Amino acid sequence: MTATPATGIPVVSAAQIDAALSRRDAVEAITAALRAGWDVENDHDRLFAPLTGGEFLLMPAESATSAGIKVATIAPGNTTRGLPKIHAWYLLFDRETLEPRAVLDGARLTTLRTPAVTTVAIAGLLAAHPEGPGTSIPRLAVAGSGPQAVEHALTIAGRLPVGRVSIIGRTPDRVESAVAQLRAAGLAADPGSRDDLAAADVVVTATSSPTPVLDLDDVRADAVVAAVGSHGRDHRELGARLVRASDLVVEARASALRENGNLAAARTDEEWAGGTQPIANLVELVRGEVVRRPGAPALYTGVGMAWEDLAVVERIMESTRNDEPFASEEAYT
Q1: Is 28 inside any structural domain?
Q2: Are 95 and 203 within one domain?
Q3: In the chain, what percentage of residues exceed pLDDT 90?
Q4: Which of 37-41, 66-70, 227-231, 303-307 is predicted with the least confidence, judged by mean pLDDT?
Q5: For the segment 22-72, what is each residue's pLDDT rounded down to a tens digit?
Q6: Cα(29)–Cα(222) distance, integer angstroms
Q7: At 6, is the pLDDT very low, low, confident or very high (cuts 50, 70, 90)?
Q8: Disulfide engineering: 104 pairs with which of 12, 54, 135, 151, CB 3.0-4.6 Å?
Q9: Are 159 and 298 within one domain?
Q10: How far apart (Å, rounded) are the C-alpha atoms in residues 111 and 21?
């Protein structure tokens, strides 16, 4: 799509993103990027800048055809105001000319791509089960009741058959709302407790808690755990014992060791750098190179990476190439 001064560039709303790409399509976009050999270890660093009410987050990335950057604001206090914690826009450019190609709703992009990446990790870890590949999830437990909790349950269930979904949270009204959304989508969902965490085949933590909500004694010995809610080295959702005991997968080792609070609290930088505990990345997982140990939990912990946004954005733009044109930026001025 070529930008011209006369027509402006397309502005892609959250509703248009949903019309262009399903959750399963987003999972396939992430999988395809990894299988194509995207160099996740050399992705651009995320850039943080403090603000009075939170912080700016800038996430630049480049592919063979495009360049893009997500500009997000993170306001932790918004959760007590009944407002979204994250607001964002995504800016897409041509790789060679750096002409702008599109602007997309970054908040919806984030809630679409994050569970897509998590689902790729969970499917890969289930496939690597030492007793044989797992192809379904009889019991899924989600710690958290916000948009990411709901989207994770829906995205996972769109990729793998899921039996029962338990939503565990601190605010009953938010838990009931999340359960209602999942039931409306056809899932067998209920408010859960810590007992459901202990019984689950797969546990997802998607909370804003800065301190651990889950440790080794809270999950089954062979559970798959995915922790996606913590941001920054000073925040963690998982206790150190769980991290140390697990077969570990991250998006990329470089970004995880730089930013992941679950890892930073479990071992020193020197221990991680010295190979005290093996860490696989997502490319190695989708290639089938991860070998799980019998009787050990498998853990994926993510921080969010810029390449993930760009991979999904490119798929969105491809899927709409022959559809009705998006509204231009001029419609929003």
Answers
A1: yes
A2: no
A3: 84
A4: 227-231
A5: 999 999 999 999 999 899 999 888 898 999 999 999 999 999 999 999 999
A6: 29
A7: very low
A8: 12
A9: yes
A10: 13
Instruction: Tell me the backbone φ, ψ of residue 67, rounded to 5 degrees.
Output: -130, 150
Same domain (yes/no): 29, 45: yes
Q: Does one domain contain both 120 and 264? A: yes
CA angle 41, 251, 288 (to 5 degrees): 95
Q: What is the 3-state secondary structure (H, E, C) of 190-202?
A: EECCHHHHHHCCE
Same domain, 69 and 160: no
Q: Distances in Å between the alpha carbon of 184 and those of 132, 170, 172, 202?
A: 33, 22, 18, 22
φ, ψ of residue 321 to 5 degrees: the values are -60, -35
Rg for the chain (alpha carbons), in Å? Answer: 19
Q: Which residue range(s) make up the domain with 174?
A: 115-304
Residues 61 and 183 in one domain: no
Q: Are residues 314 and 293 in the same domain?
A: no
**Amino acid (1-letter code) at residue 147:** P
